[in-house]
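note to self: the first set is below, dont mix up w the second
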Amino acid sequence: MSATGEAFTLAELAARFALELHGDGRVRVDGVATLAGATASQVGFLANPRYRSELATTQAAAVILRAADATHFPRAALLAQDPYVAYAKVAGLFERRPACAPGIHPSAVIAADAHIASGVAIGAFCVVESGARIDEGALLGPYCHVGADCHVGAQTRLVARVTLVARVRLGKRTLVHPGAVLGADGFGLAFDRDRWIKVPQLGGVVVGDDCEIGANTTIDRGALEDTVLEDDVRLDNQIQIAHNVRIGAHTAMAGCSAVAGSARIGRYCLIGGGAGILGHLEICDKVTITSMALVTHSIATPGEYSSGTPIQDNRTWRRNAARFKHLDELHRRVTALEKDTKP
């Protein structure tokens, strides 16, 4: 039985998610799993062709797959144009979320002038400071801190130990994972002859609706204007977003990537893990930056971009690293030879 205790027939799943049913619609499933790990009461999925051979051995009661793969699986199936998207929707039926009744835990500290709407759940040892606003149905897990003049939108969930420092506005249905810090000071410094002068960070952070912010990710507030994440931006764990950055709607960034101050990233972009984007650059819509790439100039044309040196065995890498030192000399020699050989 699934974690939620619920089971669905394939006919019900097909109708709910507009999938094509192949086989017996009366088959009942109570969970989802990989092809290799599925039991006789679960539905598996085939999204990557490299796992097609597992169709012959899977114990799954049914499989979500493309129509072209249905001939490889003689049992019941749900046909989808994109099996991974279909799997994500079906899996949502079996997700168990901790029950959290509305109310304020006795250990929470709430400022007298904070506005707490109906249906809000505030967990143990939370702090909500002066002027903060928590809208209908929002959830603050244990040890969350909502700073002065911060706004948590309706149905938004701060899982635990989330810190909203100052002037942070979260939209509706946004999910913030443990340890995230939003609205801390941006790294603003001016060098005055022999010492650093801190530049006041007077802006805030604005996060749109339906966003997700991963564990231990940090988003700094702006120096003058706000740092902005538009609707449906998805950030993985341990990401750094510097002050005055703007990230367009539906962009997703993988773990340990970082964006320097005042950079602007377009809509529908994909930023790979460990990638870096320098400050004050502009990246247009529908750009993919692969893992560990360093973006050093603005990008005006949609497409996929990479940089860095792929992994090699250490002996080959050391030999090539030694040759890197001679690239400039080699370039000059080749240029000279080309000039000498021209008619």
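second set (the one i keep forgetting abt)
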Amino acid sequence: MSTVSRLPKPLRRLVAALPTEVNTTIRRLAVLSLIGQTVLVVTGGAVRLTASGLGCPTWPRCTGDSLVNTPEMGIHGFIEFGNRLLTFVLAAVAAAMLVYLWNLRKERRDLFLLALGLLASIPAQAVIGGITVLTQLNPWVVGLHFLVSMALVVLATLMVNRAYGRTGKFMNRVLSPVPGALSPVMRAVAVFSGIAVMLGVVVTGAGPHAGDADAPRNGLDWDLFSHIHAVPAYLVTAGTLVAVYTVVRKRITGPFRTATFLMLGVTILQAAIGFTQYYNGIPALLVGAHMLGAALLMAASTNAADLARYSPIEHGHGQHGQS
């Protein structure tokens, strides 16, 4: 007797109604997950930059007596609780994705595991957020909270690519040939993007935007680490320029060409925001824009590296193979 046949009749009907191939709903849920993870970065930035980090002074409740924020807590409580509430929305999206993929859990194990990873990480993210509050916004815990969000952006980007058949084992299109050297270059760009983001967390932990007036700082030299943070950013820019030059010179078309120009645009935007905030006293609005840019950078670099990996490599005599 199969596992499904042993289920109660209503559940058997539900399983029978679930899709047996990747459909529009699954693709939309993947996109919604990526958008939601990016919005979570923005709302987390709003919590810090409006000094609302302790808007809910305890965890898991917002106050000792209330699960939600109260009118007496004002705008800070509203902002902090709104950020907490978004994690439940993202959990619902990830759970819905798992349900819709149930009949495909073996055939599309790639999507199922990505959705499972997104769902499993959300409670972990909530716990880290709770520790952040209970430690009075310790900058290292706050940084870990942000880095987990970056990892979730990466997972969500991969899910979108797999759901739309852009990359992976179940590609539904033939990609334009990509020179073999570009795949390691784009992987390096993705790695250095991650390093730049991690060092950016250290810089933020040393800077003035702590999330609360009494929150501790990490005690490091903000100016020194700003310059260290710039080194991998320069390498990201160099790698991206190499990719764009190669794409134009070899007249590569298709998704990878779009991905490289998107990566170039995000890199230039991040650099412009970074330099502007550095030379203008680190205004909160630009710091928030830089945090959004970090999420976009991780998504763009992941997308480009993913596409380079699954694009055919140019070989001699015009033959193509899988990288």
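remember for set 2: The first strand starts at residue 313 and ends at 314.
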